[in-house]
Amino acid sequence: MRDDAGNERGVSTVIGVVLMVAIVVILAAVVGTFVLNIGQQQPQNAPQTAIVADYSKETSPNGEYLNLTVGSGETLQRNELSVTVSDAKDSSGNDVSLTGNPIQAQAPTEISSGTEISINAKQFSGVGSGEHLDLSEATLRIVWEPATSEETNTYVIYRWPDPSTR
Questions:
Q1: How far apart are the C-alpha atoms of 164 and 166, rounded to whole Å?
Q2: CB-neighbour burial class of residue 68 (10 A; exposed 0-12, middle 13-18, buried 19+)
């Protein structure tokens, strides 16, 4: 490039300015990451555990039941787990609700291999006299909510029945 006086000028000053701006932007991003602790806000992983369900479609005196047994995996803390059941009915087809948390009532403080939880009609409100519990269309979830974490996420660590089997 020539100016009016006939001298040659390079574009190196423009390239230099662009490179300096790029370096400043990268440094600001690195400093901002450390200042805001973005790297330390990793979500906590849900515990890995195997749970086996023993479902009885045969009606006992109280109706159908579901026994859940922890087969293997990480040790779980009872106070971090809850059970939700949706679409449970009585034998007349009326909706019934799970009362309480069977895990809190039946499991030890630390839940490990061999721990068994039983879900039956005695734990549901709305199952009237002479009625039985019907779990044929029900969905049960075991939810893990970490007690020691600052995050507010909850995780479904077990679902019965498996959605692929319905």
A1: 6
A2: buried
Indicate the pTM of the whole model. Answer: 0.67
**Cα(8)–Cα(6) distance, rounded to whole angstroms?**
7
Eight-class DSSP state of 44? P
Q: What is the pLDDT of residues 22-57, one digit of tens each?
A: 999 999 988 887 777 665 555 567 888 888 888 887
Percent of the chain with pLDDT over 70: 81
d(CA 96, CA 123): 10
Task: Indicate the burial class of 54 (C-beta count within 10 angstroms; 0-12, 13-18, 19 or more).
Answer: exposed
Q: How many CB atoms lie within 10 A of CB 160?
A: 18
Radius of gyration of the chain (CA): 30
Q: Is the pLDDT of residue 10 over 80?
A: no
Order of all β-strands in the sheet with 155-160: 81-86, 139-144, 155-160
What residues contact 52, with CB distance under 8 A and at least 6 apart? 68, 69, 71
